[in-house]
Amino acid sequence: MQERTILELYEAMLSSRSLEEAITHLWNEGYIFGEMHLGIGEEAIIAGILSHIIPGDAIATDHRSTPPFVMRGVDPEALLLELLGHPKGLCSGMGGHMHLFSQDLLLTSSGIVGSSGPSAVGFALAAKYRKTNNIAVAFFGEGAMNQGMLLESLNLAASMNLPVLFVCKDNNWAITTQSNEVTGGVLLDRVQGFGIEAREIDGSDVKAVWQATKTAIPRMRGGKKSPYFIQAHCTHKEGHLLGDPLLRFHRAPKKEFGAVTGPLTKSVLHYKGGRIDKRIGSVAKVLSLIAKSRMQLSDSKDPIKRLEKDQTELGKQFSQIQLAIQSEVDALVTGVMNTLKQEVSQ
């Protein structure tokens, strides 16, 4: 891989990460309301794939919309204003962070689990009728693989030879449930049962993602216009959402355990209810989930830190990119917040 490509991938990942860190600050300060699902930890998957996307390609993503929207070229100011509910936002302040759309870039997101499948199939069907060499990409989590609409999308793409790249961002967590405990069989086997070519990769390695799609996407554009499936393993460093109930126990253990110890003890010892061994088993299950969730905080699967570690010879260039991006994001946030304060004061 050329040095220029590595630097471009790093810049794409860091641009998304820096903006989402700014979004986190605004959310913690109360400027952004509601649940906030970030793509921190998914950047290598998005960057590695979108680097092969051309004008006219369509992207359908899930509720973690910031990375694909930023890396596809959506104006970050319009995106930030949207999250703040401003009428000048990308969708006039009505979409929040989960339900976004850019008509010019053929880019859409939805909080409905599995809905990126039907959207991408629709995009691909349109490209087929128009006889272009464009493709559609569907991003979704592994939990969506148990949704009927996504399985129907896989079937339709296979039966109609539609150029859809299905990308499963697998972190093995469905909010606070481990996905492998509620999913039967092997996902790749399930997909290959439709006759779709599929492969499994390390989604924290941007070079591996880039290489995998460098091979797959040209074939999808060529004579064999058929779907392809990638299962990319990753971690969500903020858990399912900001303020994740499991990760809070690791970040503020004294506060969190102090708040639940009393109620849990009371429920276990209550004279009514299920058998005592069942109650203790339930508490043990909760503690086990809390312990297992700690791995999401590890830097070992952080795609940005991994690339920095793998490419130490590019440290100087990485530092320059960091300074430039942080300066841009700081200026963006300051400008947007100053504008909002002026509007409020008028």
Fill in the keyword field for this structure.
346 residues, alpha/beta, Rossmann fold, 2 domains, seven-stranded mixed β-sheet, 51% helix, 11% strand, globular
Question: What does this protein structure show overall?
Answer:
With 346 residues, the chain is α/β, with parallel strands linked by helices. It folds into 2 domains: 3-235 and 298-345, Thiamin diphosphate (ThDP)-binding fold, Pyr/PP domains (Rossmann fold, 3-Layer(aba) Sandwich), CATH 3.40.50.970; 248-296, no CATH class. Helices cover 51% and strands 11% of the residues. It is built from 13 helices and 9 strands. The chain has helices spanning 3-28, 43-50, 66-72, 76-83, 116-129, 148-159, 187-192, 206-221, 248-251, 253-269, 276-293, 303-310, 315-345; strands at residues 58-61, 101-102, 107-109, 136-141, 164-170, 173-174, 177-178, 197-202, 228-233. The strands form 2 sheets. A 7-stranded mixed sheet has the order 2-3-1-4-5-9-8, sandwiched between helices. Strands 6-7 form a two-stranded antiparallel ribbon. Strand 6 and strand 7 (177-178) form a beta hairpin. Helix 1 crosses helix 2 and helix 2 (43-50) packs parallel to helix 8 (206-221). The longest helix is centred in the last third of the chain and has 31 residues, at 315-345. The model has no long low-confidence stretch (mean pLDDT 94).
